[in-house]
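Narrative summary of target 7.
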Amino acid sequence: MTELTVDGSALLRGQEVRVRVGSENLGTGIVDDLSEDGTMVWIIFGGATPRRMFIPEDKAQYTVLPPASVR
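Modeled conformation, tokenized:
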């Protein structure tokens, strides 16, 4: 599996993703939850801000990473 950049509607709970907003790379995390239509996405990051919600206005891009066993 190769990396694929998608919007929130293509995500699944438990996927590992790299999150980018504009030119800022926010790091990698796990999709914790999302609204039914994928417009709101909650990502669990490590560190001081462990869980963050993204809404359409954030214009976040999610790059789905291959499972760790395949890297």
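The chain has a mean pLDDT of 89.
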